[in-house]
Amino acid sequence: MKQKVTIGVVCLARTTYDYLEARNLYTAIRTNLKTVEDVQWEFLEELVITQEEGSSAAQSLATKHIDGLVCISGTFHLGHLVLQLKRELPVPILLWGLPELPYNGGKIRLNSVCGVNLNASNLYKSGYDDYSVIVQDAIDEDWIDAIRVIKAMKSAKIGIIGYRADGFFNVGVQDNLLFGQTGALVDHYELSEVHSYAVAEEAVAERRKQLISTFDVSTLSEYQLDKVSQLSAKLDGFYKEKGLSALAIRCWPEFARDFGVSPCAAMSLLQSEGLILACEGDIDGALSMIAHKALGAETPFLFDFSQVDFKQDFALFWHCGVAPCNLWDGTCNRSLDTYFAGGKGVTADFVLKSGELSVLRIDSARGGYRMFLQRGKAVPMEKLLKGTYMKVLFERPVKEILDLVLDNGLAHHSSVVYGSYIRPLELVAKLKGWKVIE
């Protein structure tokens, strides 16, 4: 499911053009827009022509709590109208021009493109960059998806338990910068709050059954299996009680020492159910996963660029054993293992499935935010390692991808999802004024 949004729609016109046909086109557009899922439309059903109507439209839509505004240039129109709307509605705008109709008696009928040009120029020269432009018959659904991401970030409540992992300065965030750039708020909790979180025995027993049916647990002791079951129930209950959009976890070095097992296996299980859980206290990584989820992508997760092979031209996306277990390749043995932290590092071990991938890192640096985007493809590989991982090919040499990461000082985690989710995020970056690295 995609992030639900509320979008206002107005159609601007001028009576010196064919406004009657513009009205007919607008009626058809409204019918088509209603077929777009997970959008609450707030239509101004009458054409907006005069300054008085522009002011009234702005005041009406201001009561609807819209997340974005579509301004259709039904015909050429007064330049006041979009500025009146923008003054009351501080949300991203889609300026929508309509293809010109066949000429009638030697007169241009809509002059819609000129209206879009007028609006874009007025907004730009007024200091606004949060507008996009189309000239076509149908709405740009990628723009709607961009609004979904902006809404999800703006309404996000991100929890962090503990702190970032020891020495991982590059995943630290400045909370006020994060809020100023995205609207997301961060709440801090201690590791002990999760460790001591009370859960029913029945919930733990159910998680135990789930783990046994999902993974090969033959290498675990009864103690380890019980601790992973407890932690799965505790993290799930804590996350939901606090009303979190995502939770970043200081998963080492204290976690396994103080609780008895690392959180990796529990995180793999819970992420498969749609919870957004970020390793090593990575709040920007959590934000990246929130953005992917807002687009309807299933079970985003964080990975490391752990290996690059320049001769065979691939990268290994690996992490210690935390990827969502529903992304298993269906072939290898999907197991739990204790290969680190002195036997307390209970992790998921499996190869991830093949398929088209989209990579995203929303990353803070030097007082601002930027966005790293890539397309890739996971291809089959044998289970040769502990942890969760995939072999990935890119559309260009892997060395170029690695150079982008290193030359721009990007954090070592990125969110990855199956499917194509690039252009809506490029639009998000444009609307937010962020640099795109791709």
What attributes does this structure have?
six-stranded antiparallel beta barrel, 24% strand, 438 residues, Rossmann fold, L-fucose Isomerase, Chain A, domain 2, alpha/beta, five-stranded parallel beta sheet, single chain
Q: What does this protein structure show overall?
A:
- The protein has 438 residues and is of the alpha/beta class.
- The protein has helices at residues 19-33, 51-62, 80-88, 112-125, 141-154, 175-182, 191-195, 201-214, 222-241, 254-259, 264-271, 283-294, 398-407, 423-432; strands at residues 5-12, 39-43, 68-73, 93-97, 131-135, 157-161, 185-189, 246-249, 277-278, 301-309, 314-319, 335-337, 347-351, 355-365, 368-379, 388-394, 413-418, 435-437.
- The protein has two domains: 5-139, Rossmann fold, CATH 3.40.50; 153-437, L-fucose Isomerase, Chain A, domain 2.
- The model has no long low-confidence stretch (mean pLDDT 97).
- The strands form three sheets. Strands 10-11-16-15-14-17 form a six-stranded antiparallel β-barrel, surrounded by four helices. Strands 2-1-3-4-5 form a five-stranded parallel sheet, sandwiched between helices. A four-stranded parallel sheet has the order 7-6-8-9.
- Helix 1 links the parallel strand 1 and strand 2 (39-43).
- The chain is built from 14 helices and 18 strands.
- The longest helix is centred in the middle third of the chain and has 20 residues, at 222-241.
